């Protein structure tokens, strides 16, 4: 199942959390900080991240003294790593996407022309459904999996230790 939504309002509607779905977040407006794993980074319009399953994160829109806060406008896509079945990542043609999913365990910042192409597809996904939405997701995953414009967010040694009671 693929869930995509537009987040608009005074905040991102979440707190520090994690979930089994992978997440793409495109910040169009607003936001002050991004917390991913062991990193806190300033947010700016155009910020695009790809977060792996169970990676703790939070997007903030805190009040900054001396300035008027802007409302958040962001696009989110959530999908389970097995959204095409349990074995799809083992298909020979999926090696690049399998590697991408492993790298996303630390979170990935997307930049440059890749960011522009993926952002466009994310926005288009808001107005599609069914097979068209699935095709757009596969296209953007393919784009990300072959890009050299991805930067790891959490430290290389960062490891999330989750317990069944944490969920």
Provide keyphrases for this structure.
9 strands; 6-stranded antiparallel β-sheet; 167 residues; 23% helix; alpha+beta; 3-stranded antiparallel β-sheet
Tally the helices: what do you get? 3
Helicity, as a percent range? 10-25%
Radius of gyration: 16 Å
Poorly predicted regions are none
Which strands sit side by side, in order, in the main sheet?
A: 1-7-2-5-8-9
Elements, N to C (H/E): EEEEEEEHEHHE
First CA to last CA: what distance?
Answer: 20 Å
Please tell me about this protein's structure.
With 167 residues, the protein is an alpha+beta fold. 23% of the residues lie in helices and 28% in strands. The chain is built from 3 helices and 9 strands. The chain has helices at 95-103, 112-125, 130-145, and strands at 2-9, 22-29, 33-36, 39-42, 48-51, 57-60, 72-79, 108-110, 150-152. The strands form 2 sheets. The protein has a 6-stranded antiparallel beta sheet, with helices on one face. A 3-stranded antiparallel beta sheet has the order 4-3-6, with no helix packed on it. The chain starts with a strand and ends in a 15-residue tail after the last strand. The relative contact order is 0.22. The model has no long low-confidence stretch (mean pLDDT 92).
Describe the secondary-structure layout.
Layout: E1 2-9, E2 22-29, E3 33-36, E4 39-42, E5 48-51, E6 57-60, E7 72-79, H1 95-103, E8 108-110, H2 112-125, H3 130-145, E9 150-152
Antiparallel strand pairs: 1-7, 2-5, 2-7, 3-4, 3-6, 5-8, 8-9
